[in-house]
C-alpha cells in the first residue's frame, strides 16, 4: 500500500519558464499498478542533499492515454520543484507511488452530463486530466473551463488546451483570466465573484452543469464555492482540491491535548505495532518515529496519502480540507493532523 516503485523519466517538456512536465516509463509488469482515475496524483520520492523528499503531483494525462505524466512548477524555496526544474533529465530514476487521491472524475457515456472546472496556476494539472477524460469518454457531454494565470506566458498547458478547444469546438469552452495583462477574449483580473457569475449566468446560462471541479489556491476555491452555493448549486456537486496547504489552524479545544501519553496500535501493510506516544504528537509523527512505513507525503492536511481509520479510541484533527463530515463520523482521519485524545487508540492504514 505504501510502497514505491523505481521509474525512469521518459520525457521532460518545458511548459513555461517555471514549469516542466515529466512523463515516466512504466514497465509492463507495473502497468496495472499505475492504472489511475482522472484527477488522481502520484507521490515522487528522492534524496536531495542527503534528505528524503516526498512530493505529490497530480497526473495531467488521461487514463486512456497510457501516459503517466505530471507537471512540476518551480516555487520559491521549493526544494523538490527547484531540483526537478533544474536537475532532472531523461533517464533519471525516481521512486513513484501508485496513483491515489479522492478528487476524481469517473466517466459514464450512458449519461449526458456537463461539467465546469475552475483552475488557477498549477491547479490546471488534475483539471486537465479530468477535461481530457470527459471529452474522450463522454461523447455528448460539454466542458467549461475557467483558468486563471498572470499572463499567457505563465499559463501551463496553454497550447494543449487550445488544441483541445479546436478539436472539440462544439463541446469545450475556455474562459481565460489574466491578472497582469489584458488579453483579447479574456477577463482581466482574478477569478472572483463577478467572474463566476458572468460565466455561469451569462456566457453559459443555457448549459445545465451537473458537476463542478475546482483546483487552486484556497482563497479562489472558497470564492467559487461560495458563489455557486449562493446560486443554489448543490454542494455535493462541487468537488475541489487545494494545491497549497493553508496555515494550520488551532485545535478548537486545546484542553483535549494533554501532556499525557496514549497507548497506540498501528496497523499498516498487514503488520501490527503497539507503543506509547505523547498526545501532543500527531499519529503520523509517532508512527514514523517508531520506524513504521506509514504512507505520507504533504504532511499539511491537503493530500490523502496518510489516510487511516480509527478502530478504537478518539482523535482530534488540527485541520481537515479533505474529509467530509460523514467520513469523519465513519472514523477516517488524516494522521498528519490527528492527535490522540484517549488513553488507548487503534489506527488502521489498511482499512481505507
TrEMBL record:
Its cofactor is FAD. Gene3D superfamilies: 3.10.20.30, Nucleotide-binding domain of ferredoxin-NADP reductase (FNR) module (3.40.50.80), Translation factors (2.40.30.10). Residues 262-352 form the 2Fe-2S ferredoxin-type domain. The keyword Transmembrane helix does not apply. It comes from the Bacteria. GO terms for molecular function: 2 iron, 2 sulfur cluster binding; flavin adenine dinucleotide binding; metal ion binding; oxidoreductase activity. PROSITE patterns: 2FE2S_FER_1 (PS00197), 2FE2S_FER_2 (PS51085), FAD_FR (PS51384). Pfam families: FAD_binding_6, Fer2, NAD_binding_1. Residues 2-106 form the FAD-binding FR-type domain. This is Flavodoxin reductase. It comes from Pseudalgibacter alginicilyticus.
Amino acid at each position: 500500500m505504501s510502497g514505491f516503485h523505481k521509474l525512469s523519466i521518459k520525457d521532460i517538456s518545458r511548459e513555461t519558464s517555471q514549469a516542466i512536465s515529466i512523463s515516466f516509463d512504466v514497465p509492463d509488469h507495473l502497468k496495472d499498478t499505475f492504472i489511475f482515475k482522472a484527477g488522481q496524483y502520484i507521490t515522487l520520492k528522492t534524496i536531495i542533499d542527503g534528505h528524503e523528499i516526498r512530493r505529490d503531483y497530480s497526473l495531467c494525462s488521461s487514463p486512456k492515454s497510457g501516459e503517466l505524466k505530471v507537471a512540476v512548477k518551480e516555487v520559491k524555496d521549493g526544494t523538490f520543484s527547484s531540483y526537478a526544474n533544474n536537475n532532472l533529465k531523461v533517464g533519471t530514476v525516481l521512486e513513484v507511488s501508485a496513483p491515489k487521491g479522492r478528487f476524481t472524475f469517473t466517466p459514464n457515456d450512458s449519461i449526458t452530463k456537463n461539467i465546469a472546472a475552475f483552475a488557477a496556476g498549477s491547479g490546471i494539472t488534475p483539471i486537465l486530466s479530468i477535461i481530457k477524460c470527459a471529452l474522450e469518454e463522454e461523447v455528448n457531454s460539454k466542458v467549461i473551463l475557467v483558468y486563471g494565470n498572470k499572463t499567457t506566458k505563465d499559463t501551463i498547458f496553454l497550447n494543449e488546451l487550445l488544441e483541445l478547444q479546436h478539436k472539440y469546438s462544439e463541446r469545450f469552452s475556455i474562459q481565460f483570466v489574466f491578472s497582469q495583462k489584458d488579453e483579447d477574449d479574456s477577463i482581466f483580473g482574478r477569478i472572483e465573484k463577478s467572474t463566476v457569475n458572468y460565466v455561469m449566468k451569462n456566457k453559459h446560462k443555457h448549459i445545465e452543469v451537473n458537476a463542478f471541479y475546482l483546483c487552486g489556491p484556497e482563497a479562489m476555491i472558497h470564492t467559487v464555492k461560495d458563489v455557486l452555493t449562493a446560486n443554489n448549486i448543490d454542494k455535493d456537486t462541487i468537488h475541489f482540491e487545494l494545491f497549497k496547504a493553508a496555515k494550520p489552524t488551532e485545535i478548537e479545544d486545546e484542553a483535549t491535548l494533554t501532556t499525557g501519553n496514549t497507548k497506540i496500535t498501528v496497523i499498516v501493510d498487514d503488520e501490527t505495532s503497539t507503543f506509547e506516544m505523547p498526545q501532543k504528537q500527531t499519529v503520523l509523527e509517532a508512527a514514523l518515529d517508531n520506524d513504521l512505513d506509514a504512507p505520507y507525503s504533504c504532511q499539511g492536511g491537503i493530500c490523502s496519502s496518510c489516510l487511516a481509520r480509527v478502530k478504537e479510541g478518539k482523535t482530534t484533527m488540527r485541520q481537515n480540507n479533505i474529509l467530509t463530515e460523514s467520513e469523519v463520523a465513519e472514523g477516517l482521519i488524516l494522521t498528519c493532523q490527528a492527535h490522540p485524545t484517549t488513553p488507548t487508540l487503534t489506527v488502521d492504514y489498511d482499512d481505507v
